[in-house]
Amino acid sequence: MHRPRFATRLSTAALVVFVAGCTGHRAASLAAGPVATAFTQASGLAGTWNGSFTWVGAYFYIDDARMAVRIEDDGRFTATVTPAGGTNNLAKPSRLAGTVVPRGDLVTLRNEEGPWPWITLARSGDTLYGVAVDPATQANVMMKLVHDDSWPSASGPGRGPGR
Hints:
The protein is α+β, with helices and mostly antiparallel strands. Helix content is 25%, strand content 41%.
């Protein structure tokens, strides 16, 4: 009698996993489609965001970089990470690209290429900020980006928030 119950439980579990996997894939594809585009256009996120990130509590080694994020009207973004100068800096240069998903005061950058699978930041006016884990160091980094198309890119000279 125990075998039919085991088979029923196993097939039920397999069905739940299958349905959850299909639903998750569908939800991810919707977030990258027209719905995300409409939210991005209405949110005022389009443009260039410049800023930096730095390791929380670093003392012997640092993880310090400049970031430039370009958000398009269609909900797509590209970003460039450029290590800041300094001895023992563990930051790695990288490029990110993917979709922007705004939700209230939170903005999630879902990466399709680059080291971060996603970054979620809080928004206050023309500033995005938050804490994320840098995949290069596995350390918490504080991030701050300011919406200002007049600033130079992260690879060029210029000032950054708090610098």
